[in-house]
Amino acid sequence: MDYKDFKKQYAATATDISRDVFFKNQGVMRIKKEKTAVTNLSKIFEAVFSITYNKGYQAMSMRDLSLKTGMSLGALYAYFPGKDELLAIMQTQAQAMVKGTLVKFSNAHKNPLEKLRSVIKAHIFLSELFRPWFYFTFMEARNLTPKGFDAVKSIEEHTQKIISDILVEGEETGVFKPGKHDLTACMIKAMQQEWYLKRWKYTKQKISVDQFTDHLLDMVEGFCRI
Amino acid sequence: MDYKDFKKQYAATATDISRDVFFKNQGVMRIKKEKTAVTNLSKIFEAVFSITYNKGYQAMSMRDLSLKTGMSLGALYAYFPGKDELLAIMQTQAQAMVKGTLVKFSNAHKNPLEKLRSVIKAHIFLSELFRPWFYFTFMEARNLTPKGFDAVKSIEEHTQKIISDILVEGEETGVFKPGKHDLTACMIKAMQQEWYLKRWKYTKQKISVDQFTDHLLDMVEGFCRI
DNA sequence: GTCTATACACAGATAGAC
DNA sequence: GTCTATCTGTGTATAGAC
């Protein structure tokens, strides 16, 4: 599976995300028509990413957001109760996306080696497809309430455990060396994150997501396989 | 060399940093007495780290800083011209520390393998010794002016090149496998950063800086050595 | 649903007494 | 060197017309 295959298989778009957010947050949104809501939520998210990429969420003012979306301040507040809540909504959405995808790709294979490859690839490819969401989640995690920050940590531990479980399973079936699988899983996650945290570097060096992923897999297999 | 050895050898403290900042920025500081300046700069930096760790620099108000340091607003402005400039001063200082240390440890050995180990270790140990500085630099880099952000990128590329040069040299002398050394260097940097970006994880799992470093070196050597 | 106008809190920064 | 008091701009958020 390369990135192109993944995109076909996954087939989610920015619109799908906005629709998801709309249905999950109908309780707090004053907008009732799905089509209007989805269109404008997409505009809002895009604007948030574009503004915060260079200066962070706290530095983004509601007036910035109003200007970038072309919507008035009053209109914006019909889509979310306040600036803090918008952040929380976006973070929750991003977490749901990651959790769902990894479980799906982890169950797609039986063989531990294939499983490991599949999970590592799926995470990187997902982060490529929804890069702004991933970057945003990482960088703005600490602007959340303590409870929200705990949720982010919990996702991190969850995805780490998916990987270390595969390593343990592989050790038992004799394809992976024994070792500190928890630490290895942490390192793998660190390298995966590199892809969306330092994107400027790879754009500059003209390294594609497939090249990056293959290199990561080479390193991991070089270290783990018997 | 383990972390304990490094600390002895390096022997820098928070006070040394403040003194360094004082001498480098005498032009913009209204304080003239070294002792007063060093004491209060240390208080200021510590307060900045403590406040921004949970909410970022932009969200820290000068009143927060005044409260935490126990200094008045007026007093604070005698130490730096403005909030933005304080950020710039701190970033510049952090960059100088990294650059100086890596060059020093890279030149401490001739053998590429020893060199690689030394540089990787030095970076992690330095980030452990001045953890708040490293975390702060990474997380607040994008709050800088474009010029300041370029400086951060340039440091990143510089340290990456130190590593990839060692890998190339090792390939030539026959100790390392051929490969995409630039990409490998990026991965190594990603794993090094993991140590100070996700410190909560390792505190929780009770993993020491020496254990972490050894594991990273095992992975790198497993992949690179012939 | 979306707009304009505005309330009101709090930000960064400075002046001038001590 | 440090303080208190204060200026002025900008922030989030809302009310009410359309």
Biggest interface found:
A-B, 37 and 37 residues
Strand tally of chain A: 0
- Topology pattern of chain A, helix = H, strand = E: HHHHHHHHHHHH
What portion of residues of chain A belong to β-strands?
Answer: under 5%
The secondary structure category of chain A is: mainly alpha
Please give the alpha-carbon distance between the first and last residues of chain A.
23 Å
Count of helical stretches of chain A: 12
Helix content of chain A: over 70%
Q: What is the 3D shape of chain A?
A: elongated
Taking pLDDT < 50 over at least 5 consecutive residues as the criterion, the unreliable ranges of chain A are none
Rg of chain A from C-alpha positions? Answer: 19 Å
Arithmetic mean of pLDDT of chain A: 96
Q: How is the quaternary structure best described? A: homodimer
The major β-sheet of chain A equals: none
Explain what you see.
The structure is a homodimer of 226-residue chains. The first copy, chain A, has helices at 3-10, 14-24, 34-55, 62-69, 73-76, 83-106, 112-129, 131-140, 146-172, 181-197, 199-204, 209-224. In chain A, helix 2 packs across helix 3 (34-55), helix 3 (34-55) packs across helix 8 (131-140) and helix 6 (83-106) packs across helix 8. The longest helix of chain A has 27 residues, at 146-172. The mean pLDDT of chain A is 96. By secondary structure, chain A is mainly alpha-helical. Helices cover 76% and strands 0% of the residues of chain A. Chain A binds chain B through residues 53-56, 58-59, 139, 142-143, 153, 156-157, 180, 182-184, 186-187, 189-191, 193-194, 198, 200-202, 205, 207, 211-212, 215-216, 218-219, 222-223, and chain B through 53-56, 58-59, 139, 142-143, 153, 156-157, 180, 182-184, 186-187, 189-191, 193-194, 198, 200-202, 205, 207, 211-212, 215-216, 218-219, 222-223. Chain A binds a DNA duplex (18 and 18 nucleotides) through residues 30-33, 36, 40, 61-63, 71-75, 77-78, 82-83.
